[in-house]
What we know:
The radius of gyration is 25 Å and the shape is flat. The chain has a domain at about 1-65. It has helices at about 5-15, 20-40, 45-50, 75-80, and strands spanning about 85, 90. It starts with a helix and ends in a 10-residue tail after the last strand. It is mostly helical.
Amino acid sequence: MITNETVAHLAHLARITISEKEIGGIKEDLEKILAYVDEVNKIDTDCERSGASQAFQENVVREDVVTNESGRFTESLTKLAPHSENDYITVKKILSHND
């Protein structure tokens, strides 16, 4: 059973602000999630007992061979991107490093 205090503590750890009104809904959601996880945990995943392990007995290995020339598709792929420059896809900078 999840308490209101537990929800408030989780909000504090996540550094989010939630109102007293929101706590009840979040508490219900968390309880549903935990109930679902409990159901998933009950699933038998022991491959030895289920016979599924036989499917994993053989490891197929092949040579890693490049089948196309380097850069063959670069131009056609970069044309599909909204922005590109010098055969590179350009994107908006979203992170910054503060020294």
